[in-house]
Amino acid sequence: MLLDAEGVTGGYGEADILHGVDCRVGAGEVVVVIGPNGAGKSTLMKALAGLVHVRRGSIRLAGEEIANAPAEGMIARGLAFVPQERNVFASLTVAENLAMGAYARPAAAREGSARVAAMFPELLERPRALAGSLSGGQRQMLALGRALMLSPRLLLLDEPTAGLSPKFCGLIFRKVREIAAAGIAVLMVEQNARPALAIADRGLVLAMGRNRAEDAGPALLANPEIGRLFLGGA
Amino acid sequence: MEAALLYLTTILTLAGIYAALALGLNLQWGLTGLMNFGALGFLAAGAYAAALLTAPESAQHLGGFGWPWWLAWPVAAAAGALLALPVGAASLRLRADYLAIATIGFAEIVRLVARNEDWLTGGPLGVSGIPRPFEGLGQPWGPVAFLLLVALVVAGLYALAQATAHSPFGRALRAVRDDEEAAKAAGKDPGALRLRAFVLGAAFMGLAGAMLAQFFKFFGPDALDPVATSFLVWVMLIAGGSGSNRGAVLGAVAVWALWAASDWLAAQLPAELATRAAYFRLFLIGLALQVILLARPQGMLGGRG
Amino acid sequence: MLELVNFYIIPGLVLGAVYALAAAGVSLVYGVMRFANFAHGDLMSWGAYAALAGVAAFGISPWAALPLAVAATVPLAWGVDRAFFAPLRRAQPAVLLISSFGVALMIRALIYLAWGPTPATYGLGFSPPILWEGVRLQRRHAVILAGALLAALLLHLLLARTRAGRAMRAMADDPDLARITGVGVGGVIRLTWAVSAALAATAGVFLAVDTELTPLLGFNVLLAAFAAAILGGIGRPWGAALGGLILGLAEELSSYPVLPGGAPLLDPSYKTAVAFGVLILVLLVRPQGLFRGMG
Predict the structure, then answer these.
(1) pTM of the predicted model, to two decimals?
(2) What's the gap in Å between the CA of A234 and the closest CA on chain C?
């Protein structure tokens, strides 16, 4: 198991949002986290990334305990996080955003750039454009590219397709499969549950800060009760 | 004995004047969350209003009508309030730090106008010969009577401030201060509410200025050290626990007492050491503020609810 | 025309250069730490007086004493941040503002204690001005202009071309995202203070050379520095520098007899109000500044 989170309990202040959540991701796996609004999916991502305090429970990355470790040390451990909002530096250029992706190991920047350029060729067309001037879809690609610069072991994505056009949604899911094929594990929160589960190895259902269900991606998709409760209409 | 009594009345009178200033600032900051670093500007407006109205006629400045204090003081309060209208209308939408900077700028402009427009204010020399109420009673009863007057005014301002805080207006202000969006959704007009509080606080400051001018019997652009005064009033507010009117008064008296005590101590020293002591005191006041802020950062926010 | 250049434009540029350096320093701290540092003016004074100590002790020129000024001001900034500002970083911005006000007074008091209130000078002496086609440029002004330009260039290189500078800009843009990408917040803050203090010390020495040394030296231009920083878009050091230049020129030109009859636009005794006037105007009309700032 690459990521093994067990009994994670915590939140933003006095009140806990997560109540003993378990979450496991194997190397090269794509795991999707779905659930209704307020279920704590984003909070779980932030707790894994070191941005939210974990009151109880453990989070192990490749056997090493990382719960409440400083957020700035995560990228060096091979854990890259792409938040849902404000996931690029709007006042920095595209090239500078990517350079920030390699901040922890600047020597690897060139190699990282080449890899990202291969995956998102459109990105490097205008390297001097300010990230704030990009469209939503382009911004998302930049955020993903930034996270991939140092070849993380685990990629955390919080609603990567939020607010994107169907064309970009499809693109993002295709890229996620590409990333996994390259050996990078992906843990992804998604509201667009159906297409996400379709490309996932496993799915995790969260509600009210607790685990509700867990199964292989296609199995969850086929499950009528899950479909009714959590996947919305057809 | 009489000298000691006179000294005490002086200290207490000034403490009262600062208390009035602190109460005005508390209306603006404690109740409404407005960061005003330019209290001196409103104080000066009231001081000059009272000075020009009560002083005898003079070629050096405008006015000089020889009015009695009980006519001049309401006008002084109004002067502070009137000045606060354009300042408030222009700058209350600004964030705390911008408002602080803007109000310092405003106070500085007031000082420059006071200094340069000598036809109006007597220029750098200021207005002198201002009569002090109850002077006719001689020493020591004159100063004691004036002290009682100031104490009465402060008591009145305190009552007014308390009434305001507990009124629907006060509740609305706290609602706006704590969560503007929710207050707007509930139908409140944050801009208008803030302006009213700002103007009321400025009226308090104008009144404090009137009392000061008639106490000093003189007022000019350099009558008060602008930095030390604005800072001192904030220290008083914070030391007393901002947001609380009682804290404002207690803080004013306590800090002023310390300030006066250190002044007295410094005066006992030989001359060259005395000036150094003044600077040392400045250092200590700054340090004291840091200690209070560090020990009790919520002391800034105090009196919530 | 020559009168305009010699007595208004050149002094305006020199004053503008000082404002530019001061504003850039204040803008940097605001951008990275969201903190309006009211003690910045007194950091300037500290630097100027440190240089005075060097001049008095070693008989060097104030220019040679600049590294001394910087070396004395950077640790002060670090110390003050460690002791007073860092513990308050999680508090409301108003608390930090008040705290910096108090720190300003403490620094000023120390200067008063050490040197007293009497104005002092570096004793730079008189040297013939540089003459060119009727334009007279005092040597000290030439050094100030060149020095400010060099400082601006170095600042630009730091922010635009170095990894550390990029980290500062990233933190100014989004502190959480910066942490996610591995930026060590503590290190960036220390660097920001160091650069801001260096700029302050330089501005202080330049201002003292152009005018004279008093403990109120820096505080007197603090509001102009903030005005310039806000004018240029707070958090944007380049904008602040440009804002400073504009403000300096505006201040000097305001007393130029431009109206018919030889009257200036503004009575010269109101010169210092120009900065405040500009500040209030900008805050009312375009608070985000002339250039795109970081809010």
Answers:
(1) 0.89
(2) 36
